Amino acid sequence: MKTKTNQNINVGVDTGKFQLDIYIRPLDIYFTVSNDEKGIKEAVRLIKKHHPERIVIEATGRLEMPFIMACANANLPFVIANPVHIKRFAGAIGQRAKTDKLDAQLIAHYSEAIKPRLSTLKPEIMQAMSDLVGRRNQLLVMQTMEKNRLQILPKELAMTIKPILTVFKNQITKIETKIVNLIESNPDYQAKNIILQSMKGIGKIAAASIISNLPELGYINNKEASSLVGVAPMNKESGRFKGHRKIQGGRHQVRTVLYMAMMSAIQSNPVFKETYQRLVAAGKPKKVAIIACIRKMVVILNSMLRDGVLWEAPKA
Question: Which of 14, 115, 173, 208 makes an SS bond possible with 179, Cβ 3.0 to 4.6 Å?
Fold first, then answer.
């Protein structure tokens, strides 16, 4: 005879690069699986048997996305939790010790006590948006190349270029419309989009690029955010040699979009306009000043998303 339980099942998942630590509360079930297709499939099978009220996984970067995709495909209720909120909860209940098992237990306890809102995130939409933003960047590059050719080729060849530029413009517009529609189709994206675009200089494409290509923003510290975008200056020193600090690595797709956004921001946003003018007046090359402004922008946006607040320019 089957018995029905009134227990609310909450699952905490601690994400690692190579494994997932999972705790099911209040059943006191703990297990680990490898963070790959086989392990995730096994985890979903075991979790689904207990009909959880919610599964909470701490956002640590993109490591959790395969598991989230699997949960979404299995129609399991999940929450991608901000690590800052988990840390504050640990402080509130006085938990100081840290092991993988304790972290999974803590996340499950957080789920039970706080009951965070279930995510409506659709990973396939995120992938589609990332692809669209990437394709838009490709078209922009080709468009720029054709515009450059238009300047140097004989006038009689202009007629072979202008129709191509028209095609690029139309395709870019269509892609931008698709990106906006994808964002508007999902409440989680809408909330992020509103916060991001509240900052002067961040438009719909910059916001879409951040949402799709930098999902960690709001869940990481400022140094990590700058590094992911590739605007954190790196030292180049060896012995007595002292080289110039340079940016390197990062996600160039986001950095390219934010560079264009900053060109607008230093005109329309008094905070970045003042920072840019101050750096240039101090003798910094214009490009270096722009990168410094982008770094400041990323740090501010990271804080805004973390705290769920809109942009508010400092009062004079």
Answer: 208
Kindly list the averaged pLDDT for each block of 10 residues, start to end, along the chain of length 316.
Answer: 64 93 96 96 96 90 82 90 87 88 95 90 74 86 92 87 94 91 86 94 89 81 85 53 48 85 93 95 94 94 91 72
- CA within 13 Å, CB half, 63: 17
Write the CB contacts of 82 (distance below 8 Å, at least 6 apart in sequence): 59, 218, 219, 306
CA 256 vs CA 71, 86, 145: distances in Å: 33, 33, 16
How far apart CA 191 and CA 189 sit, in angstroms, is 5
- Cis peptide bond prior to 26, omega within 30° of 0: yes
Burial of 135 (0-12, 13-18, 19+ CB in 10 A): middle
* C-alpha span between 40 and 34 (Å, rounded): 7
d(CA 52, CA 220): 28
DSSP 245: P
DSSP at 62? G
- Amino acid of residue 7: Q
Q: DSSP string of 184-228?
A: HT-HHHHHHHHHHHTSTT--HHHHHHHHHH-TTTTSS-HHHHHHH
Q: Which of 90, 78, 81 is nearest to 43 (CA)?
A: 78
* Assigned token pair, 6: 């009134």
Residues whose CB falls within 8 Å of the CB of residue 166, separated by 6 or more in sequence, listed in order:
none
* pTM over cut 0.85: no
